[in-house]
Amino acid sequence: MSGDHSAAAIDTTDPTRYRASRRVTWVSVLTNVVLSAAQIVIGVVGHSQALVADGVHTLSDLVTDGLVLFALEHSSKEADEEHPYGHGRIETAVTMILGGMLLAVGIGIAWQAGTRLWEAESFVSPSALTLWVAIFTLAAKEGLYRYTIATANRYGSAMLKANAWHHRSDAISSFIVVAGIAGSLLGFGYLDGVAAVLVAGMIAKIGTELAWHALRELIDTGLDPEEREAIRRTIANVCGVKALHSLRTRRIAGQALVDVHIMVDSRLSVSEGHQIGEAVRARLIKEIAPVTDVMVHIDTEEDLDDERRASLPLRDEILARLEAYFRAIPEARHIDRITLHYTNGHVDIEIRLPLGLLAETADADDLRSRFRAAARPDLHIGSVELVFH
C-alpha cells in the first residue's frame, strides 16, 4: 500500500496536486456514466440480471466520485482563522468513508457469491452480447484503477488511493460477471462463486485498512516508532541541542506535524536559542519526508526543574529586589545592564559595569564580593557575576 510519495513531503494545498486529482476524478465520473448506461441497456436487452446489477453498481460509483470531488474542493483550501491547520482532515474523513464502502462492497460480493454457491445456481445466463460488454467494462475499470492509483501514489493521496481500490473492486465485480457467463458456457458455473469469495476477502481487507488508517489519523495517532526515532536522531544532530523531550507527532492528509521541546545551554542569548530552534525546524522539514511543519519549544533545564523554575520571580521583581540590595553600593549607580539566567532552580545574575570603575574605586575582587554579599540573603538568587567593559 506504499507509494513513491515517501520521497518528499506532501502539500495538500499544492495546485498541481489538486488539478491532477480533480482531473482523474472527472475521468472516473465520465467513464462511470458511459459504462453504467451501456451495462443497464445491454443487460436489459440481453436478459442479463447480473449485468444490470453490475450497471447499478457502477452507477453508485458516481456517489463516491462526488465525495472525492467535494473533498478535493475543500481540503485544498489554505488555512484560515477557523481552520489554522488547514482543511486536510476533510480528505481523511472521505478516505474513511470510502474505506467503509469498500468493506461493504467486499461483504456484499462474498454474500452474493456464497449464497449462489450454497444454492448451486448459475451466476448469469449465457449471452454473447453481455459477455463482450462485461469484458469491456472489466478493461475500463482496470484502466481507471491504474490511472487513479498512479496519481494517488505520485501525490500521496490516501483518498485517491481508496477511490482507486474502489475501481479495482468494480473491475473484480465485472470479472465475476465475465467468469459467470464464460463458466456457464463451459459448464462450470460454480467457478465464478469461488473466485468471488476470494477476491471479496481482498476487497474487504483493503477497505478495512484504509478506514482504520484514516480513523487513526482523525484521532491524532502519532507517526510510527521508526519515523519518531528518525526525528529524534535528526534533532540530536543539530549543533547546540543538548537534549530533547515531549516529542509529539500527528498526521493530516499525507502531512506530518511535529511538536518538540529541545534543551540548550542556559547561557545562550535569546537570538541564538531561537536560531537553534529554527535549524531544528528546517532540518526536520528537509530530511523527514512527511514533515511539513514543526513547533519547537526552547528549554534551558530538564523537566525535573520545572516546578522550582515556575516559582521563580520575573525580571521586574528581581530588579526591584536588586535595587534595594545594592542601594549601599555606590558603584551600582553605574550598572549598564543586568542579565538574568534561570537555571538550576535559581536566578543567576550577570551585572555589566564600565571598566573605568576599577581605576576610580576598588579592584574587581572587592567589588564582586560586595555585590555578592548584598544579594546573598535572597534564596531565589544564585550566583552574582560582574562583567567589565
TrEMBL record:
GO terms classed as biological process: iron ion transport; zinc ion transport
Top-level taxon of origin: Bacteria
Keyword field contains Zinc: yes
Where the record annotates domain Cation efflux protein transmembrane, the positions are: 26-219
Q: How does this protein lie in the membrane?
A: Multi-pass membrane protein
GO-annotated molecular function: monoatomic cation transmembrane transporter activity
Task: Work out whether the entry's keyword set contains Transcription.
Answer: no
Q: Which GO terms describe its cellular component?
A: membrane
Which keywords, in A-to-Z order, does the entry hold? Answer: Ion transport, Iron, Iron transport, Membrane, Transmembrane, Transmembrane helix, Transport, Zinc, Zinc transport
The protein's location, in the record's own words, is: Membrane
By its UniProt entry, which Pfam families does this protein fall under? Cation_efflux, ZT_dimer
InterPro entries, alphabetized: Cation_efflux, Cation_efflux_CTD, Cation_efflux_CTD_sf, Cation_efflux_TM, Cation_efflux_TMD_sf, CDF_Transporter
In this chain the Cation efflux protein cytoplasmic domain maps to 223-300
Provide the primary localization.
Answer: membrane
Residue intervals passing through the bilayer: 24-45, 93-111, 123-140, 171-191
Family the entry assigns: Belongs to the cation diffusion facilitator (CDF) transporter (TC 2.A.4) family. FieF subfamily.
Q: Which NCBIfam families match?
A: CDF
UniProt-recorded name of the protein: Cation diffusion facilitator family transporter
